[in-house]
Amino acid sequence: MQIRQIAAQQNIPDRYLEQLLATLRRAGLVRSQRGARGGYLLARDPWKITLYDIVSCIEGFDTQADTEKQPSTAEGLVISDVWQEVRQAAETVLQKCTLQDLLERRNARQQLDIMYYI
User: Which structural domain, as residue segments, surrounds residue 34?
Assistant: First the structure.
């Protein structure tokens, strides 16, 4: 799809979307195609792209920065441990879910929303 189409459908500013797609392209998650029918395509099959791939590409999971700032109090250490558990749980969920999974979930929800009238 072209950036204009994606931006309009998802209500995302063009400039911001360009930056996101450039980041995703550098990570090998999407590829760009030039020409009249140009735009952006997934670089891999949707069942091979996890949400972890996308989030880590765009947001990053900076675990090294956290280990450099060790809290000096017992309370700080406890909170740090809890946040580490949260991060690990989030990463586990994101690694299990693919773009294909999201598509199937969306389609299932849309099927539930269909109303039949007699």
Answer: 1-43
